[in-house]
Amino acid sequence: MPIEREFKYVLRDADALYEKLMRDQTLTGMADINQVYLSRGGRIRSRKWWLKDGEVFYASTAIAKVEYIFTYKHDLQTMPGCLEIETEISEADFMLGWSEADHKIVKTRFLLPNDQGPGVWEIDFFKDEQGIYLAMAEFEVPAEAGPPDRLHPLVQEFLVFSVPEDDGRFKNRKLCERKLVETLLKEIAN
Question: In this predicted structure, what is the pLDDT of residue 54?
Answer without folding.
Answer: 44
